[in-house]
Specification:
Structural class: alpha+beta
Distance between the termini: 54 Å
Order of helices and strands: EHEEHEEEHHEEEEHHHHEEHHH
Shape: flat
Strand order of the largest sheet: 3-2-6-7-8-9-1-10
Number of strands: 12
Number of helices: 11
Length: 371
């Protein structure tokens, strides 16, 4: 038994979250109509810790729209023409350079996210090499360091879940700071990183015993069994590029797609953005907002040429990036956490699992035909 395991009775959960909210921003899933979304913890409401959130948690660390900085341009002081004492024109001075004032956003405060699914935590660590690798993004990294991620182990799985296909697990110990498992009488809390120490010092938490640890492992095994055996995706990083020019394949796979973009906006791992300056007079703000490669205008060039004007090409790029390009660039990590939101929320039932398996089958068939 891990001596660091903590146990929190169900009746103490809200008191613990309220205690944390005294010094930190606390977010947890909440019901809003038919949806489940991440919201600031409200002691008067019960967090939704059974259903999978409709949206992913990525907006907590990577907001849908954020101000990178505000700017204000100060005009140069006006220098009227001047005359020498004898009445001749004085030599003109060099005009002053206009001043630009930049105001950075506020620093993020300490935050804890309780009850996020393991696949959402996997989405966060897919962001890490993108915004914390060769090119450092201070906005993302400041939030990342300030945030404690408490992942909720899935005791059940939906038919659209496939985290085990891409290296995940219903009890995700790889990507969160704490793994929380809902037991019959309370929550088993397993610290996974040093960040966990920021929130586990409460007197409301007790030490867990062997019985709680065994109960949790049984629930984890049940959830893995519900997802089923993961197929072998070996070679997918080569299969997809091999089908790049196979128009028949991509036209067939994209036929049902409406190009609505729901798959990318709900995806925990999609990280594309656009930057705009919103200006009024001499002041303005530079904004970063989510963008999506499934949008028809995403690759539109100033010349009017669009290399991915057809939805088949855009779907090819989306699937290829997640299962081939990203994998090759980031030590074999697939840019998909298997949450299944793109399947569950697609109005046309486009299934990325089917596309990947069909691509493997098609590529192997072509390879066999070519000897």
């Amino acid at each position: 038994m891990n001596a660091a395991l903590k146990f929190l009775p169900h009746e103490h959960l809200k008191a613990w979250l309220e205690e944390l909210a005294g010094t930190m921003r606390v977010l947890a899933p909440q019901k809003e109509g038919a949806a489940v979304v991440y919201r600031a913890f409200d002691p008067s409401r019960e967090p939704e810790l059974i259903r999978k959130p409709t949206e992913s948690a990525k907006h907590i660390l990577f907001p849908r729209s954020e101000a990178l900085f505000a700017f204000h341009k100060k005009k140069a002081p006006f220098a009227p023409d001047s005359l020498n004492p004898d009445g001749s024109q004085a030599e003109k001075e060099e005009p002053a350079t206009p001043a630009m004032e930049l105001t950075p956003p506020e620093q993020p405060g300490p935050t804890v996210v309780f009850g996020m699914t393991g696949c959402d935590a996997g989405g966060v660590t897919t962001f890490d090499p993108v915004y914390g690798g060769r090119y450092q993004d201070p906005y993302y990294l400041q939030r990342r360091e300030a945030t404690v991620l408490i992942a909720r182990a899935c005791n059940e799985a939906l038919s659209t879940c496939f985290c085990t296909w891409v290296g995940g697990d219903p009890a995700n110990r790889r990507d969160a700071d704490i793994l929380a498992t809902r037991l019959e009488n309370g929550w088993l809390l397993e610290p996974l990183t040093e960040r966990a120490e920021r929130v586990l010092g409460s007197t409301l938490l007790g030490d867990a015993g062997e019985a709680e640890a065994r109960e949790a492992e049984a629930l984890h095994a049940k959830a893995r069994a519900a997802i089923g055996e993961a197929p072998d995706l070996t070679g997918i990083e080569d299969a997809l590029p091999a089908l790049f020019d196979d128009k028949d394949f991509w036209w067939s796979e994209s036929a049902a797609c409406l190009a609505c973009g729901a798959c990318t906006y709900l995806c925990p791992t999609c990280h594309c953005f656009t930057i705009t300056d919103e200006k009024a007079g001499l002041s303005g703000v530079r904004l970063r907002a989510w963008d999506t490669c499934m949008a028809a205008l995403y690759t539109l060039e100033a010349s009017g040429h669009n290399p991915r004007g057809q939805k088949a090409a855009r779907l090819r790029n989306r699937v290829g990036h997640k299962f081939a390009y990203f994998l090759k660039n980031h030590q074999g990590r697939i840019s998909c956490c298997g949450c299944g939101r793109c399947i569950k929320s697609c109005p046309s039932s486009v299934d990325i699992r089917r596309i990947v398996l069909n691509a493997l089958k098609r590529a192997k068939g072509k390879e066999a035909a070519n000897g």
